[in-house]
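Section 5: illustrative case.
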């Protein structure tokens, strides 16, 4: 009992400290007159929560959005809208996410700020990537790459490179995928973008897996898993475990595949990313189909449960959107 009380006190202290840091960053954002530095402060504001806790990420975006209206700051407003969209995408709701980014794009165009437009284009590209519209995704990312390179914004350039690596890999253009992923990895190490390293290692693992470089592939997957655990991101942990499961399935090492697919499910259970258990559950059900009927039923039920959960989440999100937009009208 004493331990529980001590842990609760520790947790409350952490939450209080986090709230204080949030308020401090909001004040810094409000005070910063230089647009580039203000944008970087906003990126820092969202850096941890956006891939660890989408609910917290959305709440932070709402706070920034409210402040942007009070200060009549279109830069902050644009990035707050893109972040709300990113949070919805994390929940698996591409439609609402794209809708918020379209609003952000219109606002960014009004400002005429190229740096802001590049950030919005990268975010817009994520949705077209999800929809497998790769030509449109590449146009947006290459446009952002050109702008980021011209203004020497290494953070935006890293985002562009790492997403280009993922898209080219999905298109099975491994040479281009390797080149862009390596460029992103180099920039991440040079400028210490620690929140991006796990994602980039994951892409390098996938590329080397396709190239038949097994040792390099598993090495990068291990790095991705370690970085995801260090960041505390169920999302990245799930993605890394599932990618490793797919790799072992591809080389017919079924036991290893089962082990990592199971870890991928465990990583997101009882989190806001629970919908990400769908793919590994489906993979496991397929593996067990001809081996063990009890396990087949177990993972088919898990697959169905994850689908049902995704539907419920989207229903809740729709209600949240209506509530949030009503609050904006009231403001």
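Designed sequence:
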């Amino acid at each position: 009992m004493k331990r529980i009380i001590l842990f609760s006190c520790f947790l409350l202290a952490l939450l209080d400290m986090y709230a204080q840091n949030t308020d401090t960053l909001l004040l810094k954002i409000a005070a910063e007159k230089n647009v580039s530095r203000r944008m970087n402060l906003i990126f820092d504001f969202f850096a941890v929560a956006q891939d660890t806790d989408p609910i917290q990420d959305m709440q932070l975006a709402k706070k920034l959005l409210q402040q942007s209206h009070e200060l009549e700051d279109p830069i902050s407003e644009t990035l707050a809208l893109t972040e709300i969209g990113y949070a919805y995408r994390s929940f698996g709701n591409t439609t609402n996410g794209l809708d918020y980014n379209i609003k952000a794009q219109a606002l960014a165009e009004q400002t005429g700020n190229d740096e802001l437009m590049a950030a919005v284009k990268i975010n817009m590209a994520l949705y077209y990537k999800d929809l497998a519209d790769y030509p449109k995704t590449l146009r947006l990312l290459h446009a952002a790459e050109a702008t980021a390179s011209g203004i020497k914004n290494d953070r935006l350039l890293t985002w562009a490179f790492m997403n280009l690596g993922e898209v080219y890999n999905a298109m099975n253009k491994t040479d281009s995928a390797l080149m862009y992923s390596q460029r992103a990895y180099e920039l991440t190490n040079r400028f210490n973008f620690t929140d991006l390293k796990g994602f980039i290692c994951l892409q390098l693992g996938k590329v080397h897996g396709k190239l038949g470089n097994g040792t390099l592939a598993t090495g990068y997957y291990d790095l991705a898993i370690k970085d995801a655990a260090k960041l505390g991101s169920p999302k990245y942990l799930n993605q890394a475990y599932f990618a490793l499961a797919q790799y072992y399935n591809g080389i017919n090492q079924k036991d290893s595949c089962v082990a990592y697919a199971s870890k991928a499910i465990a990583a997101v259970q009882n989190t806001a990313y629970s919908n990400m258990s769908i793919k590994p559950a489906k993979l496991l059900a397929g593996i067990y189909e001809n081996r063990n009927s009890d396990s087949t039923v177990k993972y088919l039920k898990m697959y169905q449960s994850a689908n049902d959960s995704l539907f419920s989440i989207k229903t809740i999100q729709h209600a949240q959107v209506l509530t949030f937009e009503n609050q904006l009208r009231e403001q």
